[in-house]
Amino acid sequence: MTDFEIGWTAGIIDGEGCIGVYDHRTKSGNQFRLVVRVDMVSKTAIDKLHSLWGGSVSWKKKSPPARNQWAWFTSSCTAARILERILPHLIEKKNQAEAALVFQETKKRGYFDRGRGQRTPPAILEYRQSLSDQLKQMKKEVA
User: Fold this and answer.
1) Which residues of 37-46 are buried (b: 16+ CB within 10 A; e: fewer)?
2) Rounded Cα distance, 48 and 64, in Å
3) Residue 59 CB burial class (10 angstroms; 0-12, 13-18, ≥19)
């Protein structure tokens, strides 16, 4: 991957992207996941992101007067690797990327002692929730 492609990706995510930590309920309780996504009317840039970084592409049908959009997204470790690579080039969303990377660290093995098949301790879940809330607040401040 070239420096230009890394910088281009940073520019697209900085301008059109979304960095977030989202929770979803499962049978075993709340789980949190890092997501990086870009929604655009033009498929060309979405295809380029997909070819550079992998991830998924989907089509989002919107109600008029909004225009239909293409979406590229990736999550968890892949999203963290992308953020690590583009972090020096981010301007507007740099603080969001840094908070997202702190969150992803809590998902790594060895961050806390947990045996296989055991639930995440409540203190870790609360910390992840606080990071998710911080990211939501940062987005409001940018808007």
Assistant:
1) bbbbeeeebb
2) 27
3) exposed
Q: How far apart are CA 28 and CA 6, in angstroms?
A: 37
pTM: 0.85
Give pLDDT tens digits for 1-50: 899 999 999 999 999 999 999 887 766 667 889 999 999 998 999 999 99
User: pLDDT tens digits, residue range 113-142?
Assistant: 555 666 777 888 888 888 888 888 888 876
Q: Where are the domains of the chain?
A: 3-142
Contact 71, 46 (CB under 8 A): yes
DSSP secondary structure letter of residue 88? G
Q: How far is CA 69 from the centre of its chain?
A: 18
- Cα(99)–Cα(42) distance, integer angstroms: 29
Domain 3-142 is classified in which CATH homologous superfamily? Homing endonucleases (3.10.28.10)
Q: What are phi and psi of 136, to 5 degrees?
A: -60, -40
Out of 14-18, 60-64, 68-72, 133-137, least confident range: 60-64
